[in-house]
């Protein structure tokens, strides 16, 4: 099975609802997870174009959220080395996260839930 049918990232229904709400105000969105300390280790949501990715970032895939543009997800390559054997799901909880992420004024914060890749996923991503 090829990687085109598998994804490294997903989104919960609650996070998708918040993304639709945020997209109505900010337009197309994207996520970046830097692996920095404190809130830097949380997924940060930005309007597309407000955070520039580069050669130090790994593209993980897009979140298909009904009603808005697909939401690309990136992670710093250094952090990806630690997380490459995991599938990531972006979720949302009550509480204030970083002021840099667009959900902060909503009293919500995005977070990552992870699980180990299955044998099929490991093979598809060339990790077995």
From TrEMBL:
<dbReference type="Pfam" id="PF05610">
    <property type="entry name" value="DUF779"/>
</dbReference>
<protein>
    <submittedName>
        <fullName>DUF779 domain-containing protein</fullName>
    </submittedName>
</protein>
<dbReference type="InterPro" id="IPR008497">
    <property type="entry name" value="DUF779"/>
</dbReference>
